[in-house]
Design a protein that fits this description.
Blueprint lengths: L12 H10 L5 E10 L3 H11 L4 H6 E10 L4 E7 L4 E7 L2 E6 L4 E6 L6 H4 L1 H4 L5 H10 L5 E11 L2 E10 L6 E9 L5 E8 L7 E9 L17 E6 L2 H29 L2 E4 L6 E5 L3 H11 L3 H17 L1 E5 L2 E7 L4 E5 L3 E5 L3 H9 L2
Parallel strand pairs: 6-12
Antiparallel strand pairs: 1-2, 1-11, 2-3, 3-4, 4-5, 5-6, 7-8, 8-9, 9-10, 10-11, 13-14, 14-18, 15-16, 16-17, 17-18
Helix pairs in contact: 2-9, 8-9
C-alpha cells in the first residue's frame, strides 16, 4: 500500500494498475522531455562528432529530446518533436493523418477510416513518438510472474500530485533494476517513467512531462496546411483495413507481423530466445569479416561514404572481443542492453547480461 502524502489517499499497486487502464482524460497538452544515459560514452562521442552534436541518434544514447503533445481524443492528437533547427510533426485530425518534416519541407498525408488509431495508420511515425504513456505501456506489457510490483508513495511531476508505481524484474539476468511510473492522482495517466539499470541511483532513461494542462486543446492545434513549396506524398489505407475498421485492421496487422516473424524464424533469419525481461533477439547478419569489407567499400563511395565508413570503423573499434564455447565475436555493453556480433554472422541483443547472450548464442 502506498504511504501517500496527507493530501492523497493511499492506493495499492493493484488499484494503481486499474487506474492506468481506466484513464480517459477528455484532453490535455504539455511538453515532454525524454533523456537517456545508456552508459556508452564512446558510441555517443562518435555519433556526436558525426552529427555535430545535435543528432537524434546521439540524444537517444546520451542526451535529451523535447516534444510538444496535444490530445483531444483518439482521433484528434498531435505530437511535435523539436530539433535544434527542425521539427517533426505527427497530426491526427479525424480522417486525416499528417506526418511532417520541416527541415526537408516534406510530408505524408493519409486518409484513414473512423476508429483507426494514429498508430495503426502510421506505425513508423508512432515509433518515434516516445511519450510517458508509450513508455508505461511497454513496462506494463513486460509484467509477468517474474516481476515484482509495488508502490512507494507520492511524487510531484510538472506541478501535479502523483502516485509512484515500481516494477522490478526478479530475474538476475535482466539488466533492468526497476521501472518507476509516476501516475497522475486525478487523471490517472503516467506523467513520468524512469528506467533504472541495476545497482544505480540515476535513471538510464526518463520520459516525463515537464509541463501539462488538462484542458481540451483548441481545434486549431490539429489543423495543418502544408507551407508553400512543400512536397507532400499522398498515401491510402489498404482496402481491407477500411472495410474492417480500426480494430479489424489492428488484428490483421498483428497477424501479418506474426506471420512475418514466423517466416523469418523458419528461414533462420530471426528468432526470440526466452521470454519477458530476459528475452533475447537473435538475427542473421553479415559476419565480422564481411562487415569490415562492407565498411571498406563504403569508404570508397565519395565523401558521404567515407564519413559513414569512418563512423562504422569507430563503432566497431569500441566493441570488446569475446569468445567462449559458443564461438567468438564482439560485444557492446551498455547499462540497459547488450549486443553480441558473432564471427559466424549472428546478432544477439537484449536487456540482459553478456552471459545471457552467450547462453543464447550456444543454443544454435
Amino acid at each position: 500500500m502506498a504511504n501517500a502524502d496527507p493530501a492523497l489517499p493511499d492506493r495499492s499497486a493493484a488499484q494503481l494498475l486499474v487506474d492506468l487502464q481506466s484513464a480517459d482524460p477528455s484532453g490535455f497538452s504539455g511538453t515532454v522531455v525524454q533523456s537517456a544515459d545508456l552508459g556508452l560514452p564512446g558510441i555517443a562521442g562518435l555519433l556526436g562528432n558525426a552529427t555535430g552534436g545535435s543528432g537524434n541518434l546521439t540524444s537517444l544514447i546520451a542526451g535529451s529530446n523535447t516534444a510538444r503533445l496535444w490530445y483531444a481524443g483518439e482521433e484528434k492528437m498531435r505530437f511535435s518533436l523539436l530539433g535544434t533547427n527542425s521539427e517533426t510533426d505527427v497530426i491526427r485530425n479525424g480522417s486525416d493523418v499528417w506526418i511532417w518534416e520541416s527541415k526537408e519541407n516534406t510530408g505524408t498525408h493519409l486518409k484513414v477510416p473512423a476508429g483507426m488509431t494514429g498508430k495503426e495508420a502510421a506505425p513508423e511515425a508512432s515509433a518515434s513518438a516516445l511519450t510517458p504513456q508509450q513508455a508505461a505501456d511497454a513496462a506494463l506489457a513486460a509484467i509477468d510472474g517474474t516481476t515484482k510490483v509495488e508502490t512507494t508513495g507520492a511524487a510531484e511531476v510538472a506541478g501535479r500530485d502523483a502516485y509512484e508505481l515500481v516494477i522490478s524484474p526478479r530475474d538476475t539476468e535482466s539488466l533492468v533494476g526497476q521501472v518507476r511510473l509516476a501516475i497522475d492522482a486525478k487523471e490517472h495517466i503516467p506523467l513520468r517513467v524512469d528506467v533504472y539499470a541495476k545497482n544505480t541511483t540515476k535513471p538510464a532513461i526518463r520520459v516525463a512531462f515537464e509541463q501539462i494542462t488538462f484542458t481540451v486543446p483548441d481545434d486549431q492545434q490539429f489543423a495543418f496546411n502544408p507551407p508553400p513549396g512543400a512536397k507532400v506524398t499522398e498515401q491510402s489505407v489498404p482496402e481491407d483495413a477500411v472495410k474492417g475498421g480500426g480494430e479489424e485492421a489492428h488484428k490483421a496487422a498483428e497477424e501479418a507481423h506474426k506471420a512475418a516473424r514466423e517466416a523469418s524464424a523458419d528461414k533462420g533469419d530471426f528468432k526470440v530466445v526466452g521470454e519477458g525481461w530476459t528475452s533475447v533477439a537473435v538475427a542473421k547478419g553479415p559476419n565480422l569479416d564481411e562487415l569490415t569489407k562492407l565498411t571498406d567499400e563504403a569508404g570508397k563511395q565519395g565523401a558521404e561514404g567515407a564519413d559513414a565508413s569512418k563512423l562504422a570503423e569507430g563503432v566497431l573499434g569500441t566493441l570488446q572481443p569475446v569468445s567462449g564455447a559458443w564461438g567468438s565475436g564482439k560485444l557492446l555493453s551498455g547499462s540497459l542492453f547488450t549486443v553480441l556480433l558473432t564471427d559466424d554472422g549472428r546478432i544477439l541483443a537484449g536487456a540482459v547480461t553478456p552471459e545471457a547472450l552467450y547462453k543464447a548464442a550456444a543454443a544454435k
